[in-house]
Amino acid sequence: MNHANGSAVAGSSSGSGDDLAPRRNSKRPKYSRFTQQELPACKPILTPKWVISVFTLIGVIFVPIGVAALLASNNVVEIVDQYDDKCVPPNMTNDKVAYIQNATFDKTCIRTLQVLKNMSQPIYVYYQLDNFYQNHRRYVKSRNDEQLRKASQANETSGCDPERTANGAPIVPCGLIAWSLFNDTYKFSLDNKNLTVNKKGISWKSDRDHKFGKDVYPKNFQNSSVIGGAKLDPKIPLSEQEDLIVWMRTAALPTFRKLYGKIEQDLKEGDSIIVTLENNYNTYSFSGKKKLVLSTSSWLGGKNDFLGIAYLAIGGLCFFLAVAFTVIYLVKPRKLGDPSYLSWNRNPAGN
Amino acid sequence: MAHGERPALSDLPRPISDPPLRPDLISLSASAVASTSGSRAEEPDRLGASHKELPDADARLVFVGDPGRTDPRLSLPGNAVRTAKYSPLTFLPRNLFEQFRRLAYVYFLVIAVLNQLPQLAVFGRGASLLPLAFVLLVTAVKDAYEDWRRHRSDRAENGRTAAVLEPGGSGEFRPLRWKDVRVGEVIKVLADESIPCDMVLLATSDLTGVAYVQTINLDGESNLKTRYAKQETMFRLPDITGGRAAVVLRCERPNRNIYGFNANLEIDGKSLSLGPSNIILRGCELKNTVWAVGVAVYTGNDTKVMLNSSGASSKRSRLETHMNRETLFLSAILVMLCSAVSVCSGIWLTNHEDELELMQFFRKRDYSAGNDKNYNYYGIAMQVFFIFLMAVIVFQIMIPISLYISMELVRLGQAYFMIRDTNLYDESSNSRFQCRALNINEDLGQIKYVFSDKTGTLTENKMEFRFASIRGVDYSEGKDPSPYNSNIYHVVVGDQFWRPKMLVKADPELVRLLKSEGETEEGKHARDFFLALAACNTIVPLIVGTPDPKQKLINYQGESPDEQALVYAAAAYGFVLIERTSGYLVIDVLGDRQRFNVLGLHEFDSDRKRMSVIIVCPNNTVRLFVKGADSSMFGVLEKSIDLDVIRATETNLHSYSSMGLRTLVIGMRELNANDFKEWHSAYEKASTALYGRASLLRAVATSVEDHLQILGASAIEDKLQQGVPEAIESLRQAGMKVWVLTGDKQETAISIGYSCKLLTSEMTHIVVNNNSKESCRKSLEDAIAISSKFATISSRVQNSRTGNGSAKPPLALIIDGTSLVHILETELEEELFRLATVCDVVLCCRVAPLQKAGIVALIKNRTEDMTLAIGDGANDVSMIQMADVGVGISGQEGRQAVMASDFAMGQFRFLVPLLFVHGHWSYQRMAYMILYNFYRNAVFVFVMFWYVLYTGYTLTTAITEWSSVLYSVLYTALPTIVVGILDKDLSRMTLLKYPKLYGTGQREERYNLKFFILIMMDAIWQSLAVFFIPYLAYRDTTIDGSSLGDLWTLAVVILVNIHLAMDVFCWNLITHLSIWGSIVATALCVIVINSMWFLPGYWYSSFTCLHYYVLFLLISLSFGPSQGVRCEKKNTPKCLYVYMLIHKIFVKFADTTFYIRAIYHIMGTPLFWLCLLGIFAAGMIPYFATKALTEYFMPSDIQISRELENFGNCNESSNTEIPMSTFSQTQRFIQ
């Protein structure tokens, strides 16, 4: 009996010793909120309150913005004059391309613009081209930024096809974009007094400072057999050729405006401006339109009602949805988190 | 110590040469017969295979102690192992080859190559290769790291030393590195050393030639196994090592069968046959044996452990299969977009053909070379063709490249959380959850059929002896209120007390009977009964020390838990097995130590379903003890004398098995001189036979095991695992069908079915129990008729009494293995399928392993439903591999099942959190992530497509090439991965509380064609909003391409991130950081790329982007976890600080060297911001409104449960709620 008791006690103690051994190197994963996927978290639910307030909030924000945008757009005064057809002599209308290609013809053309509303300075002068794919793949790639930036890279013309070289020498600036530089010119006069067009600062400062070198001069430009557009003064560095800089920032869309200059003078309602323009640029070969645009600007940019209308539409839709949801929620209310809606609680009853 | 007082070796009769060992064959069931549940081979006829003759051509000749002669041409592999896949030289080609086996990567490669053609160069060379290179690099780095670790472990392994016999007959052992060991060398292994290669035992420190090995590294089993050296070599060791005896070993070619070995040893002109018990395998450890000497037969990569180290199974998840279908749709959309663009461009070119020459932006000819040849223009047809190819390149990300790598990362993250889940940790076996297959996590959320093994899966496989029926008398009064009282038997050895390690309750009446002096008939039978229990087995007693030096424990080591239980029971009744060698047994019979010589042992096999041992008792009678399954035993009992005893025993057996106990019948026969002589000569002949030894031995066994006198029957309880009934109940509530496939008897299976609540009393049982095909057909047809009758009744009942949820009476199908033989793989399969699918519960008893796989295949091949098989033993391996998802229980029966499984865990009940919580989450997350990836890439592609329509169909992208290639790999990748790993639609507690929520995955509610179409329509709408709002707002302005492109890029990235944000269920800090951080990082990247656009510094810009990304990744990863983890906090600030510093320098550098100003032009205008705002509102309104409407009026169960979670508790902050939920959860499942 004694033995039995003794052994039982010893046995139990040894048993616990056995049990302890694995516990010491237990593989039990350490508890942490991260590993147990129990990080403090917020679990938002789309309650009717939320839905209605979100729609209302969007409506409240969008409608005033829309109104403001429309007002801004309405305050912008814009004069647009399409002159491509008008500036071709009547006898040449059948063959505009021949007219524009013939350097012997006088391309000067006089246009009169009526100012219908007071325009306060600065008045931006743009030319607008239609149907001109400045974003065409062949076109967009045809330039070399290294060459434009550094004088030492003048021979770097890779990517400039098909305007890399002329007469065996590299072109600076090379490429289709530079080659096709727009070359119509505009002169404005009001009451026989010249309106000065400020052409300084029409390009981005960062472009002038960093992308077009101060010591890079045009070389061998427009010397190939086909002339694409404007010529450049080889004595002026590229960083000061602002028309080129503006042109080389290729437009996103096939209809685009480019800044020509700024008129830093107010215009009054009823003024008529005489524009003397040189119609040099060939858009006739692909039926592109050319327009001259004089426009003031607002905090939102130029004249464009779209954003205002879009905002009003979105805001209105949201108000409508807010009301619609309110009505729906009132007509068919559902208690949130009601277990009786669970499919297995619902189906037997429903059948 | 056990050997301290070993009796001298007996010379008469000769100890049997083939010792009892693991039966090298399959058991029909894991549980039916003693000594079987450990068997784990798979092919039923392995027995024949491993003992067949060895033609010279198939044999390997090993000259013991002479590696030079064994392998003169050095053609056999050395012992160096190589688990590493790559070497530094082969890494690149091999790794690339492996990676490009994925078809998607080939697609991206083809596109990148196309882009290198000058005519098609859409992107810069670098830009087009970057995403693919990035994905390949990430994978390659991962592979390289894994391989480096393998290299390191290989080096360590190969550098270990072994004691190898010095050639030249000196008999000295010298240390040699493992990798230099060659076949034929004689190696000495000391206790607790690892075995360097597969070697045939020649001698051991034990006189009987026994060596104990632990095979934990090989198959994970921790119990000791016995291996034997042949007596012939045992005592000739000096001759062999001295080179005086030429010993030649002829063994089979290397194969991967761990449990089979077949060889002949020629020594002194005699040929000895060797079996699996004579070989010790690499990876094992020598235990309880001072030394062992063996000859190397398989080395290096020929060793069985290396041949068996195959990788994890590679399955493909259901979701991924479906994803491929949608990928095809996307490809179709892609082809449509590309065709549209190329056709339009063809029309445009035709219309403008005459003008192309003079168009400033086209300029068909190149004049600079003098001759006016066409510049990059090959005629309209070619042009259209090129445009098509270019369109493919531009729109390539329609097929999301990053999705594949994201899915892998997400699964890795999910697996991490599964492994770290404390609720899946099993305390009793100290085992974590294991994720062995990394590509089917989401399948866990879609299971419809669960096939479960019974023994060891539903039950603990810890056997406990409960009742005995001795000569028809039932001793089942053992439910003694005071257990272990005076019934502990000690064996006094010197001044030490030895007692069995496990204590078993003893029936007092039986104890009294055994102790009663005088030869009562009952007492004699009872003693014979327990002697049989103690002797008729393959258990090896091991003496283990305790802290008390006087106290030793006897630990019975054996492969079958049933046998262990029987031996412990015998010990409790005073028949303590103390020592076993191949030649004799020492049993302490009621305090009197007796020695029994073992004359022969007939191993268990699945045909006989019984085993027997022939021993010489102290009174010099020769006795045969047999134990086996009742079905096999009743046939060989002597019915003429003990008919009433047999009847009574049968009644007892029936009552035991209906209690869910495992029963065995014990029989005995005294062999008279004639019988013995006859048997002995047959046995000698059979056991030394070279060919067909196994079948000869079996014939001998069958002939001797006859005319037995019944001793009684034993009943062993296999306790249910904790929480099994609850788990099965939950699984069934979740709409899963639980099938139990067991090797047990029908009665046992049914009673276990009741106790684990698989079967309930209101169920109608359909029993199919036939032994011919025709009767099977008939009973199946009857059963189908019954079931359909029930179905009509139930539907009528349901119609008349609406509202009663449980109208249909549940059906249970019980079918046995014999019937399945006639049904599986015949035309009856279809009928069984029809029947089984209408039944709620299916119970298959007495099934063989291959039948288990057949049943799984029955369902898998006929339905779309996902199947899961769970099991713990070798007999479940085929089923586990057959099922869509295989789960292994790392329990008592070794690790074969675990090795074959996709997931492994410690307890059956973990299936519930695994499926309901992790499976549900994984499915939900992965489904959302795939759809979202499709959506987000489609938005981007469509935006580019609309723009192409305004560029003369020339595939110009306003979005810079870098943005378009970085979009899917960098800009938007991180948030999806984070959400894919961390988002939780419902909390763990809710998912466990409402098992029906699991139906979401079964019904494929989160990922289907409808969702795909909806999300594609949403993608098109949003792309319209993204494109046309800026387009209309900036029409007729001076806007330039790159500025508008940046606006589009930002708008898309922010929009898709907001979309993601709207769908996130659970916002924690990491989610916030990754989503908002991603937007900020994208903006920074766009700015940087924009200012870099003109510069050659492409690499610089992409590095800058990576830099921002790493920065945000780091911030989110370090801040996030540290919210909950205390210990990780100390490292974060330092590395963050360093990173911030680098970042600062970087920005400064970037600011001065490269100006970050260009995009400011557009960002400085209110129009830009109004456009962005308008895009978000217009883009999100339809989705938001639809979401609000469906969530309110067609709420899914998930939605309702989420509301319950939020509003059931008035306190919305989850801080207080979550610890509580873990608590209750833990209580529920750890209990």
From TrEMBL, chain A:
Residues 1-33, 144-164 are annotated as: Disordered. Keywords: Membrane, Transmembrane, Transmembrane helix. It holds the Pfam family CDC50. It comes from the Eukaryota. Coiled coil: none annotated. Residues 1-17 have a biased composition (Low complexity). One of its GO terms (cellular component) is Golgi apparatus. It is a multi-pass membrane protein. The keyword Transmembrane applies. It is found in: Membrane. The chain crosses the membrane at residues 50-72, 306-331. Belongs to the CDC50/LEM3 family. This is ALA-interacting subunit.
Automatic annotation (TrEMBL), chain B:
InterPro entries: ATPase_P-typ_cyto_dom_N, ATPase_P-typ_P_site, ATPase_P-typ_TM_dom_sf, ATPase_P-typ_transduc_dom_A_sf, HAD-like_sf, HAD_sf, P-type_ATPase_IV, P-type_ATPase_N. Its cofactor is Mg(2+). It is an enzyme of class 7 (translocase). Residues 75-126 form the P-type ATPase N-terminal domain. One of its GO terms (cellular component) is plasma membrane. Residues 1-24, 32-51 are annotated as: Disordered. The active site is at residue 453. It catalyses: ATP + H2O + phospholipidSide 1 = ADP + phosphate + phospholipidSide 2. Mg(2+) binds at residues 453, 455, 872, 876. This is Phospholipid-transporting ATPase.
